[in-house]
Amino acid sequence: MKKKEENIRKALEKVMDPEIPIISVIDLGIISSVNVSERDKAEIKMTPTFLGCPALELMKSQIKAAVEALGYLEVDVQIDRSITWNSNMISEEGKTKLENFGLGRPEPLKGTLNMDMVSYAKCPYCKSDDTVLKSPFGSALCRSIHFCNQCQSSFERFKPVE
Ligand SMILES: [Zn+2]
User: Fold this and answer.
1) 28-56 confidence digits (pLDDT tens)
2) Cα(82) to centroid of ligand 1, in Å?
3) Distance, CA 89 to ligand 1 centroid (Å)?
4) What's the gap in Å between 154 CA and the centre of ligand 1?
5) Of 27, 32, 47, 75, which is most buried with the most CB atoms under 10 A?
6) If you measure from the C-alpha of residue 141 to the centroid of ligand 1, how many angstroms do you get, rounded to a whole number?
7) What's the CA gap between 80 and 60, in Å, rounded?
């Protein structure tokens, strides 16, 4: 990767998800391309994450601000709808961060999303998978609420999405 693009990606590692302020847009895997044109115009493409998560416009403006802070006068952040984001695109580091935040890690998607995948969750506190789905919708549409029978705590997690 070229130096300029690399620097932009580094800067984006500091742009956090507005709802989960410990995970960056890079960890989430939503930056699909970074490109600097010959006349130093920065073009960033991001995939929309969860349908129903209202943070998209906010993230877009934060990404723009972070790149402008590097000195780029022209920054174009586009929503790339040609790629569908899914929870598999979250980096390993990102998944661990989610867990540390008290959110269950999204299980890798295999095949078509089904109810078993939505209801299966590992407890972020004690790592038990003796958990039950309490509600398919948490504080945000993209999260579900689970209860751990092992340590008796409830937790939210990102639903696996396709
Ligand atoms: Zn537990």
Assistant:
1) 899 999 999 999 999 999 987 655 456 77
2) 38
3) 25
4) 8
5) 27
6) 23
7) 12
Report CA(70)–ligand 1 centroid distance (Å).
Answer: 43
- Ligand 1 centroid to Cα of residue 86, in Å, is 25
Specify the pLDDT at position 162: 55
The pLDDT assigned to 88 comes to 84
Q: What is the pLDDT of residues 64-77, one digit of tens each?
A: 999 999 999 999 99
- How confident is the model over 85-143, as pLDDT tens digits? 878 888 999 988 888 888 887 777 666 767 777 788 889 999 999 999 998 877 776 78
* Amino acid sitting at position 29: G
Integer CA distances (angstroms), 159 to 47, 71, 108, 138, in order: 17, 37, 11, 10
The model's pTM is: 0.74
**Bridge partner list, 79:** 46
